[in-house]
Structure formats: structure tokens, C-alpha cells
TrEMBL record:
<keyword id="KW-0732">Signal</keyword>
<protein>
    <recommendedName>
        <fullName>DUF5666 domain-containing protein</fullName>
    </recommendedName>
</protein>
<feature type="signal peptide">
    <location>
        <begin position="1"/>
        <end position="27"/>
    </location>
</feature>
């Protein structure tokens, strides 16, 4: 009996089409958020309900070991040589990255997330956590040279740039109306869990 090639090929092509369409559908899905920024709506047991800045209602499971940190404003002069900072930057017109915000880490958080990486708060923004190696104060703010393992970056910090620092926080601060940024991961059932939340003090919106 002759081998009927077409009979064999049709199921293979169909399987390939199904597999390809499945991968395409997965690729088209919205990426799982790793940071949720917004306003606390409620806390119910271990569930934190947040209205995101884009208007979405997000439910987050609070991990049993969740860390809560407060964020409070400090002056631009609070950024000193030797400070370990994080700064969100966008490309400047002169080629020097311009700070959108700066957060100064306390000593017990030195080294947190050291390095530079893409960030999601603005188009083409990046986050750099590094040590301030030099600071030049001018009429237009500060120009910082920051160094991290494997690299360095010059950053312009305009006078109106929000500057904050971390202070110990508590879960009791997660009240309706509080402004937060929650760092999340997706659980196997598709829900989101957070093990670290930063909450603005005195109505402050976390700028990072």
C-alpha cells in the first residue's frame, strides 16, 4: 500500500497552526505588572485593594513577610557625597540623564538593587541605584556622578526634583487614601502578591 504523504502532513500543519496561534496569543497578553502604583482603597484580611494610577482596581495578596516602608520628603541638600541613592532618569536634551526623582537610602539599605536598569514610570526612563561619588551644586540644581558595580553615570537633578528617603513603616499605614507603590509577583493561580510596599507620608505620592 503506497504511503499517503498528504494524509500525514495535514495533521502536522494543523498542529503547527494551533501551536503558533497559542504562542501568538500569549505574546499578545498584557505583561504581568511587577510594580503597582496607586491609592489604597481598602485592606481586608491579607488582601490589599489599590486603585492604580491608570484607574484599574487591583487586588494584591499581602505576603506574611511583607515589608512596609514609609517615604518622606527631604531637601535636595540631603543628597550628599557618599549617599547611596536611587534615581529615576530620562534622557536629557544635552545627552546627560535628567532625574525625575531621587530617593536616598538609609545606611541599613545600602546596596539595595545596585545597578542601572530600564524603568516603567516614563517612556525611556531608567532606574539607577548607586553611590554618589561627586556632587556639583549650581544655579540649576545638582549634577551628580554616581557609581555602581560595573559602571557610572552623570545625572542632572533640577531644583524642583522630588527627593525622598525611606523610614520604617507599618501595615497600619495602609489606609484608604494612602499613596503607595507595591512590588509584586504573579502566583500560580494568576493572582498578584506583594512582599514590599512603600507608602507616602503626609499625602506624599511615591515619585519612583
Amino acid at each position: 500500500m503506497p504511503f499517503r504523504r498528504s494524509t500525514f502532513i495535514r495533521p502536522v500543519i494543523a498542529l503547527a497552526m494551533v501551536t503558533g496561534s497559542t504562542f501568538y496569543a500569549i505574546a499578545q497578553q498584557s505583561p504581568t505588572p511587577t510594580r503597582v502604583r496607586g491609592t489604597v482603597e481598602s485592606v481586608d484580611g491579607d488582601t490589599l485593594a489599590v486603585k492604580s494610577r491608570s484607574g484599574e482596581d487591583v487586588k494584591l495578596r499581602m505576603a506574611s513577610n511583607m515589608m512596609v516602608l514609609g517615604l518622606t520628603k527631604i531637601p535636595l541638600s540631603g543628597i550628599k557625597v557618599g549617599s547611596f541613592i536611587g534615581t529615576t532618569t530620562v534622557p536629557g536634551s544635552d545627552g546627560v540623564p535628567k532625574a525625575v526623582e531621587v530617593h536616598v537610602f538609609p545606611e541599613n539599605m545600602r546596596g539595595t538593587g545596585e545597578g542601572s536598569r530600564a524603568w516603567d514610570i516614563k517612556p525611556n526612563s531608567s532606574m539607577t541605584n548607586a553611590t554618589v561619588a561627586d556632587s556639583v551644586i549650581g544655579n540649576d540644581g545638582h549634577t551628580l556622578l554616581v557609581k555602581y558595580k560595573g559602571g557610572e553615570k552623570k545625572v542632572e537633578v533640577p531644583p524642583d526634583t522630588p527627593v525622598v528617603t525611606y523610614v520604617p513603616g507599618d501595615k497600619s499605614e495602609l489606609k484608604a487614601g494612602a499613596k503607595v507603590i507595591a512590588f509584586t509577583k504573579q502566583l500560580p493561580d494568576g493572582s498578584l502578591e506583594t512582599d514590599r510596599v512603600s507608602v507616602g507620608r503626609d499625602g506624599l505620592t511615591p515619585p519612583m
